[in-house]
């Protein structure tokens, strides 16, 4: 009986692993990104980026290519106008390979400025790649929604 329970548990764990694929793994990274943004967790959000990630945030004036520049961007973006929030309103994900997924969508970023709530809609693209055992953001671009 014990062997049967172990076999069932093993089979269940294999099935749940088989169900998850690149798309689901990439979307988990995007969910972690939104949570870290909402929590104003600079360390949490920065660790989601690959060391060689390309980054073009809403307020970026150049393409950011160094981890310390990504950190600086988020220190300025997340540690002011709190509380902050980020929500992916709609998205589509395209599996490019077993190790690369593009997630693009429309989002809403919220904050507080001069004591008043603010909200900004935008367009966002994440390219999430598998680096070793981990899925990381290898490219990020966000721009304001055109008026």
Structure write-up:
The N and C termini lie far apart (65 Å). With 147 residues, the chain is an alpha+beta fold. Mean pLDDT is 89; it is low at 1-17. Strands 1-5-4-3-2 form a 5-stranded mixed sheet, covered by helices on one side. A hairpin with a 2-residue loop joins strand 2 (85-97) and strand 3 (100-113). The chain contains 4 helices and 5 strands, in the order αααβαββββ.
Q: Could you give the order of strands across the largest sheet? A: 1-5-4-3-2
What is the string of SSEs from the N terminus onward? HHHEHEEEE
Strand content: 35-45%
Main pleated-sheet profile: 5 strands, mixed
Could you list the spans in which at least 5 consecutive residues all have pLDDT below 50? 1-17
Give the helix/strand layout.
Layout: H1 2-19, H2 22-38, H3 42-46, E1 49-56, H4 67-78, E2 85-97, E3 100-113, E4 116-131, E5 134-144
Parallel strand pairs: 1-5
Antiparallel strand pairs: 2-3, 3-4, 4-5
């Amino acid at each position: 009986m014990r062997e049967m329970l172990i076999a069932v548990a093993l089979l269940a764990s294999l099935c749940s692993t088989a169900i998850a694929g690149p798309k689901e793994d990439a979307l988990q990274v995007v969910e972690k990104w939104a949570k870290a943004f909402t929590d104003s967790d600079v360390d949490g959000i920065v660790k989601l980026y690959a060391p060689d990630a390309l980054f073009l945030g809403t307020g970026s004036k150049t393409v950011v290519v160094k981890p310390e520049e990504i950190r600086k961007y988020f220190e300025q973006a997340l540690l002011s106008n709190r509380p902050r929030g980020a929500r992916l309103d709609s998205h589509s994900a395209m599996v490019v390979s077993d190790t690369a997924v593009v997630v693009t969508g429309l989002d809403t970023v919220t904050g507080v400025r001069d004591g008043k709530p603010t909200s900004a809609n935008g367009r966002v693209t994440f390219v999430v790649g598998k680096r070793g055992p981990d899925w990381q953001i290898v490219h990020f671009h966000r721009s304001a929604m055109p008026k």
